[in-house]
Amino acid sequence: MPTPTPGRPVRGSATGRPIMAALDLLGRRWVLRILWELRDGPLGFRALQKACDGMSSSVLAGRLADLTSTGIVITDESGDYALSEAGQDLRQAMRPLLDWSQDWAASLENPSSEPGGRGAAWTGERATQERATREGGASRAPRRRAGNTER
Fold it and tell me: Are 80 and 118 in contact (CB under 8 A)?
């Protein structure tokens, strides 16, 4: 299976829109776990394999090849794997998803009589206020890069 890249057909998109290519890549088995393990800094192949509960070396090598060919992971001078600048940007871009998942988990722990069984932690106003408090200010809309017209 070829590495998903923007502009080429990927699972769910004949046009290869960038978001679909990214979701296809991130949806591959072990990719998110590899990115998670690299969040705190570089790791060598064996250390990364151990951190990923001993996944097979062939699967790890394949996923690292995908992540390096797409510029999300790099190898440093010592041969260790690390998040590239694009990988660090991806990590920051996923922060709202982390926030959402925590709100979602809290809503499941504290169900209310609200339609759909959503708990108080799920409500947008409360979640926005909590995030603003955690971030030390008002919540802001995400920044858009120049030339990004796709929604």
Answer: no
Q: What is the per-residue DSSP string for 89-145?
A: HHHHHTHHHHHHHHHHHHHHHS--SSGGG--GGGSHHHHHHHHHHHHTS---PPP--
Asked if residue 66 lies in contact with residue 3, where contact means CB atoms within 8 angstroms, the answer is yes
Full residue range of the structural domain in which residue 119 is found: 94-135
Contacts of 55 (CB under 8 A, 6+ apart): 30, 33, 49
Same domain, 100 and 81: no
- Judge if 77 and 105 occupy the same domain: no
One-letter amino acid identity for 105?
Answer: A
The overall pTM is greater than 0.85: no
Query: What's the pLDDT tens digit per position in 42-84?
Result: 999 999 999 999 899 999 999 999 999 999 999 999 999 999 9
Given the structure tokens 């409500």, which residue do they identify?
123
Task: Give the tokens for residue 34.
Answer: 């590899």
Same structural domain, 55 and 82? yes
